[in-house]
């Protein structure tokens, strides 16, 4: 909907009304068409202002309409009619002008924005391109290099930056609407020559071919199979080489291929999934809307290794005061220096001053006595953490929340060390903690809804996407990783090489295959985890442990001192720090190993690599759903996309399974189980069977069936 009024005598004011972000639904588009017509036809009206209600200009096209039969007036002619109007039209930008919202503003003759507003064309993040003229108008204003950067990344920028790039004409600290109305009055009689962006030439640098070649190479490298960034470059190429009308035609054709693509659907699913996880629920029935978070003012971080430093930075950047504790003076000094550097670099990037004053450093645990919430990030050692929880419970005020940054340990066990187990939750950050957006908030059996709500809210303040998960070894993310990694090792035993397995996974879209990832995180780290699980038997290469198939390959590499990148050798060789090269030593080692165990190497196809690695990971996801460790498939998908490098344009593992077809996943698991009956992770989970038996319903219907499954348990 759009409301029309006449203000200040002769300014027609059009207000978009579609809470919460005034998305351009069919009704809003119809409202704009009608009100623009009315304003242009009213002889009393000399100029027009378009704004959005509740301090938000417009969040773009209504994404919820994309999967439906779209009705209502289309955006392109609507915006064209505004641009061709013979009365000046001014966009008053408050809050955000994103996607179709910015494209609407670009069709106006002037743009006035509030200093705190953000603008951008994020369509690429939804698998689309700005197809309401964005790819044709933006470069005409900003020049090609800036337009390429903005459209291929979807980056949202401040209005200060937008002013420099000529995207907006004026920035104000006052009400953008009032300023725009005044401005509209002042330009009422002014000629519109030069104000219609589509009529301007697209400025082309002399080396335009090289510019596009470089842009294409960059997106192909970083997009890892995503088609939208490539289409964005192609549309911009059209802006540079064709007249506006033909460029618009090209934009439309490119959009048509993207609009119905599986990638766009997956990315749009992911958009809503990232918002859905905020509406968490616990097996007890407690929910986000019935649980109030407690306000947190003072925090503490214990242990200033890599994780503790990242968490401290993230808390300070969120404006919270932090007591940063490290027991030894020398590491404390080192951490202080490192954290200051991180904050300074962050401030340079974001603008503003680094929040150094918010952090107090201490070597004394007593310093945390009056904080509201502690996050401990000491070494992943259960005895150490247990002891720390006993100390914290004695030192902290009784109402303080005690959070543990653990990637796998038992939250209930740690909570049992505290006098207030209801105030204990896991906050599993991902490295680097000041960069990665994912946060697993782990509720133990005694964690109160208030504690979960507080940790989720704190995560949001820190700019994270929190996902509430249940307590089990490895929680959601790391637990699902286990069968995936295990399959990688089994494939090596059967004849694959690390580069072949990684190649298949990277071709699928992972940023890094599993062996390169293992080299990066450290083969010693995985070894320590397996040791904790009682799986490591130094010197032994027995292939059955705890009654099931086990590959000791990782342990054998560990015993050789091959820890991965940090030692220059792992599954690969690293002559410089980051470049993984196939290592002939490793191939000989694998051949010896196979010979020793009487294993015949066979040719393994990429499809088998993908099916075994991904379907076992997905199968574990179904177990997690069945057990109520994750409340819904969206939770798992968000964790995998934001924390584990799952290709965004494939939605997440559970979404991927729904696209591949649950029946196919089930059949292939059964097929591989027949070949490897000693691998329990290939045993299809009963929830998967149940979903297939109920006709493989679409993913949004799974929760209902999961609930029924749980009630049978
Ligand atoms: C036919 C196409 C022709 C032309 C091309 C044009 C294409 C487009 O315009 S595509 C849309 C481009 N816009 C975006 O990508 C913006 C997406 N939204 C956001 O980035 C953020 O929501 C926000 C910055 C606008 C607001 O952020 P925040 O304040 O943190 O709130 P939330 O993200 O939680 O959002 C609140 C609420 O609004 C829903 N929502 C947001 N944007 C849209 C939208 N464009 N369409 C539909 N719904 C939208 C969001 O899902 C939240 O609701 P739920 O919690 O119920 O999911």
TrEMBL record:
Where in the cell does this protein reside? Peroxisome
The catalytic activity, as recorded, is: a 4-saturated-(3S)-3-hydroxyacyl-CoA = a (3E)-enoyl-CoA + H2O; (2S,3S)-3-hydroxy-2-methylbutanoyl-CoA = (2E)-2-methylbut-2-enoyl-CoA + H2O; (3S)-hydroxyhexadecanedioyl-CoA + NAD(+) = 3-oxohexadecanedioyl-CoA + NADH + H(+); a (3Z)-enoyl-CoA = a 4-saturated (2E)-enoyl-CoA
One GO biological process term:
fatty acid beta-oxidation
GO CC aspect terms: peroxisome
UniProt GO MF annotations: (3S)-3-hydroxyacyl-CoA dehydrogenase (NAD+) activity; delta(3)-delta(2)-enoyl-CoA isomerase activity; enoyl-CoA hydratase activity; NAD+ binding
Q: Which InterPro entries does this one have?
A: 3-OHacyl-CoA_DH_CS, 3-OHacyl-CoA_DH_NAD-bd, 3HC_DH_C, 6-PGluconate_DH-like_C_sf, ClpP/crotonase-like_dom_sf, Enoyl-CoA_hyd/isom_CS, Enoyl-CoA_hydra/iso, NAD(P)-bd_dom_sf
All copies of domain 3-hydroxyacyl-CoA dehydrogenase C-terminal, residue ranges = 474-574, 609-696
User: What are its E.C. numbers?
Assistant: 1.1.1.35, 4.2.1.17, 5.3.3.8
Which pathway does it operate in? Lipid metabolism; fatty acid beta-oxidation
Q: Determine the domain of life of the protein's source.
A: Eukaryota
Where in the numbering of this chain does the 3-hydroxyacyl-CoA dehydrogenase NAD binding domain appear? 299-471
Keywords linked to the UniProt accession: Fatty acid metabolism, Isomerase, Lipid metabolism, Lyase, Multifunctional enzyme, NAD, Oxidoreductase, Peroxisome
Predominant cellular place of this UniProt entry's protein: other
Record note on quaternary structure? Monomer.
Tell me its family: Belongs to the enoyl-CoA hydratase/isomerase family. In the C-terminal section; belongs to the 3-hydroxyacyl-CoA dehydrogenase family.
What is this protein's name?
A: Peroxisomal bifunctional enzyme
Q: Which organism is it from?
A: Hippocampus comes
């Amino acid at each position: 909907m759009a409301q029309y009024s006449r203000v200040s005598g002769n300014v027609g004011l059009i207000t978009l009304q579609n809470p919460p972000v005034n998305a351009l639904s069919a009704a809003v588009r119809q409202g704009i068409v009608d009100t623009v017509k009315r304003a242009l036809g009213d002889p009393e009206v000399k100029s027009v202002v378009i704004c959005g209600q509740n301090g938000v200009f417009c969040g773009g096209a209504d994404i919820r309409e994309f999967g439906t039969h779209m009705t209502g007036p289309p955006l392109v002619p609507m915006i064209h009619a505004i641009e061709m109007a013979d009365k000046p039209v001014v966009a008053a930008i408050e809050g955000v002008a994103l996607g179709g919202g910015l494209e609407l503003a670009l069709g106006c003759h002037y743009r006035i924005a509030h200093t705190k507003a953000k603008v951008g064309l994020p369509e690429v993040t939804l698998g689309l391109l700005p197809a309401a003229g964005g790819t044709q108008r933006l470069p005409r204003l900003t020049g090609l290099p800036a337009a390429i950067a903005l459209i291929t990344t979807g980056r949202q920028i401040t209005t200060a930056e937008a002013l420099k790039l000529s995207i907006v004409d004026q920035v104000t600290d006052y009400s953008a609407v009032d300023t725009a109305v005044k401005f509209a009055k002042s330009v009422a009689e002014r000629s519109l020559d030069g104000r219609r962006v589509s009529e301007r030439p697209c400025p082309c640098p002399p080396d335009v071919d090289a510019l596009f070649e470089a842009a294409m190479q960059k997106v192909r490298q970083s997009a890892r199979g995503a088609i939208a960034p490539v289409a964005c470059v192609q549309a911009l190429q059209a802006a540079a080489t064709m007249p506006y009308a033909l460029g618009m035609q090209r934009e439309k054709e490119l959009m048509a291929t993207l609009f119905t693509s599986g990638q766009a659907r997956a990315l749009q699913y992911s958009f809503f999934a990232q918002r859905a996880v905020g509406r968490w629920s616990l097996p007890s029935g407690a929910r986000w809307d019935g649980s109030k978070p407690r306000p947190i003012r003072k925090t503490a971080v214990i242990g200033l290794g890599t994780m503790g430093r990242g968490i401290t930075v993230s808390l300070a950047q969120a404006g919270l005061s932090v007591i940063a504790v490290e027991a030894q003076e020398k590491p404390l000094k080192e951490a202080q220096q490192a954290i200051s550097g991180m904050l300074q670099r962050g401030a340079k990037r974001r603008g503003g001053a680094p929040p150094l004053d918010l952090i107090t450093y201490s070597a004394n645990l007593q310093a945390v006595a009056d904080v509201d919430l502690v996050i401990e990030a000491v070494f992943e050692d259960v005895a150490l953490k247990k002891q720390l929880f006993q100390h914290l419970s004695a030192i902290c005020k009784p109402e303080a929340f005690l959070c543990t940054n653990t990637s796998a340990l038992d939250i209930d066990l740690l909570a049992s060390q505290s006098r207030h187990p209801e105030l204990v939750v896991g906050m599993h950050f991902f490295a680097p903690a000041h960069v990665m957006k994912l946060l697993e908030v782990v509720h133990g059996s005694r964690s109160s809804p208030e504690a979960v709500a507080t940790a989720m809210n704190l995560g949001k303040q820190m700019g994270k996407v929190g996902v509430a998960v249940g307590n089990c070894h490895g929680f959601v993310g790391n637990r699902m990783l286990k069968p995936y990694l295990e399959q990688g090792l089994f494939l090596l035993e059967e004849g694959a090489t690390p580069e072949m397995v990684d190649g298949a996974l990277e071709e699928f879209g992972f940023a890094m295959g599993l062996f390169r990832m293992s080299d990066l995180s450290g083969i010693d780290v995985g070894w320590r985890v397996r040791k904790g699980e009682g799986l490591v038997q130094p010197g032994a290469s027995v292939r059955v442990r705890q009654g099931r198939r086990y590959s000791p390959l990782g342990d054998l590499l560990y015993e050789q001192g091959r820890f991965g990148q940090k030692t220059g050798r792992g599954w690969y060789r690293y002559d410089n720090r980051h470049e993984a090269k196939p290592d002939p030593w490793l191939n000989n080692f694998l051949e010896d190993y196979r010979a020793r165990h009487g294993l015949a190497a066979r040719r393994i196809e990429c499809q088998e690599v993908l099916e075994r690695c991904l379907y076992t990971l997905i199968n574990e996801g179904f177990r997690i759903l069945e057990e109520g460790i994750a409340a819904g498939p969206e939770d798992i998908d968000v964790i995998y996309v934001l924390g584990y490098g799952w290709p965004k344009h494939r939605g997440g593992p559970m979404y991927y399974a729904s696209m591949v077809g649950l029946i196919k996943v089930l059949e292939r698991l059964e097929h591989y189980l027949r070949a490897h009956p000693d691998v329990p992770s290939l045993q299809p989970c009963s929830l998967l069977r149940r979903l297939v038996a109920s006709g493989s319903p679409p993913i949004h219907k799974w929760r209902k069936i999961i609930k029924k499954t749980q009630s049978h348990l």
